[in-house]
Amino acid sequence: MANLKQLAQSLGLSITTVSRALDGYSDVSAATRERVREAAEKAGYRPNASARRLRKQRAELVAVTLPADPGHIGPPHFLDMLSGCAEHLAAFGLNLVIAPVPRGESELEICRRFVDGRRVDAMLLVRTKRRDERVEFLQSRGIPFVTNGRTESPAPHPYIDGDGFAGFRSATLRFHAAGHRRIGHIAGPQEYYFAHVRRMGWQAAMEECGLAPDLCSEGAPTEQGGYMAALELLRQPSRPTALVCATDEMAIGALRALREVEGGYQISIIGHDDLPMGAFTSPPLSTMRMTGENLGASFATLLLRAIAGEPAEQLQELHAIEFVDRDSHRRPPVAA
Amino acid sequence: MANLKQLAQSLGLSITTVSRALDGYSDVSAATRERVREAAEKAGYRPNASARRLRKQRAELVAVTLPADPGHIGPPHFLDMLSGCAEHLAAFGLNLVIAPVPRGESELEICRRFVDGRRVDAMLLVRTKRRDERVEFLQSRGIPFVTNGRTESPAPHPYIDGDGFAGFRSATLRFHAAGHRRIGHIAGPQEYYFAHVRRMGWQAAMEECGLAPDLCSEGAPTEQGGYMAALELLRQPSRPTALVCATDEMAIGALRALREVEGGYQISIIGHDDLPMGAFTSPPLSTMRMTGENLGASFATLLLRAIAGEPAEQLQELHAIEFVDRDSHRRPPVAA
DNA sequence: CTTGACTCCCAAAACGTTTTGGAGAATCCT
DNA sequence: AGGATTCTCCAAAACGTTTTGGGAGTCAAG
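Structure tokens for the assembled complex are given below, as produced in the milestone run.
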């Protein structure tokens, strides 16, 4: 309600003194400090955020860009993540603003608007591409940022990512150990880093086992994309006995394809993300997920450290992938 | 990058003129206006947001509080809603900041922080209670806001809500028409408006049919809460042949309870929310959902109109509930 | 008595924008 | 020609805070 000026006037003090008293500076006597604090409390005084931001040259805001593409947002608990991140940031005086991409605008323009308008102190990027123009822009501007997912940018930048390569490699090896020899991969769009690295993991495992990595089909990272890609693999003369899918959403689409094809129910399948609904599919969907808890807080910590100026190399987290054992990966290795 | 002052200097104009030229005022000649615009474009000039906000006495921000309680956030597409809302707001120069509730703090304190610190021009509230202290606070401060869900506040306020009463009443009547006579209700916490009004809808239908509304059990709005509540109803001497559940999450918990009880698979069930995973349960969960598309944009529009000063009475949307026909409501009306 | 250190306070500047209230020149009307 | 009107432009104020650079006053040491 009140103003610093009004508060000072009512106390017979200068604006300076009141401001410094509230900030706990030592050059105001303990008695005055207490008096000021009480008055501020009683008046319900809160400093005007815009004024402080202008003066301190800090926006006290962090933006997260939400991709509007199909395929939703990757992680299932994305909102929880955002919420955790915002909560952690708030403890340090930062608020999280969400920056959706309006129709007809690029994510780059959003970044530009936020950064050049001094609207934010840092940014959080999700769904990175292998070559990500947002990353390049932010690096050129020198503004702190953290990505969810790596990129192939030559300059290092802070990120949190799951080790998709290792996860998909070991999932493939698991199928091989179970006797599978025709292991297919349902890949996401290869411009996305996560999709590419998952495919590389599958491919590496295949080659390690002396198998040709040719049963691969790419689709949109959606239920429909997985469905189409699976159908294509099932049309092959020698169709796969097991499928490693880039995402759970795609895996669920693939399950639908399997149901529509003779003997399809005999094909093993595994996804990635641990979507809640995976527990309800038939068969229940085996999957993988990134380890680590309270991811939101991790993002927030990295953002704060990036703002504090820590070098990017110290702000990179690669999390292990863990296997979620349900039932869909347990089909016999030999197709009908 | 650049400053209004620097830009003016480089053009040999005053700050005033540059500012007015960019804002398209008529008291700067077309030639100058164009010259300024070009220079601004070339310099990549964006007005400093904090400065403008301070001067215009507007925060250009809207906050949405995220409840941290169990039971998640009600609607399944909540993130999509937020995204749509943010996108629509952005078209009018407003950004959406998310305000999670830190542990140990009340939602009221959050509101206070945002409102009294002049951090926002308006607020968006979700998960209203019948008597909601946030609503009372915001009304007392006279700051514009819109709620997702009604309240029992004596003074009207803008809201968007589904007509839970009608939805649950007609779901109950549908069961009655199908021959059911023992229709139970799994209720959410009655302090929430949505939970209360849904129970009232069920109760009204029961009384219309001349049935006693005694098969009701309340639980937390979670899978576990629904499970527990269902078990309690199933322990009754004369157990229900159909269940109307306050939320899909609770309904899924109830389904689990039904599986664990002899003859439980014969009991009909319906939920509310249209969670994606409802399509995958067995049996697939019949449910209801609020009609209306691009809810986020509706919220944004209401917020903008509230900020513009329209009276609350004109800013209330009650949406019809539509039935989503899957399979779980089609069990025989007579229990084993 | 002078000096220096210390304590407590304050006036003024600064942050970058928008807006107010004109000023000077040109144009129009009579 | 004289006055009114229009067209361009600008200096200065304002928004509310934080920070800079002291300024009195007190006290102890020299």
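Residues 13-17, 20, 26-29, 32, 51, 53-57, 118 of chain A lie near DNA strand C (CB under 10 Å from a C1'). The first strand of chain A starts at residue 61 and ends at 66. Further analysis is deferred to the final report.
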